[in-house]
Amino acid sequence: MKVRQMALRLDRAHKEKSKLEEENNKLRTELSKYSNKTIDLEQKLERTSLALEEKKENDPEHSKKLRKEIEQYIKEIDKCIERLKNS
Question: Residue 63 pLDDT > 80, yes or no?
Fold first, then answer.
């Protein structure tokens, strides 16, 4: 009787372990996705910042547009960072 109970507990533990490993893999994949998105957004931000500096003196209207884009990228990066922290 005790051997059966231990066998059942062991079986449940193995199932729980498999479930947790699957969840862990899913979370790692999601983390990787958000990390890649953050890197992409940082690169876009860098390119936009450089473009802004080049155009800043010549075209103030274009400069405002680029500033808005930068602000949007920063918001998206902040969201990704927040998701990474919560994962």
Answer: no
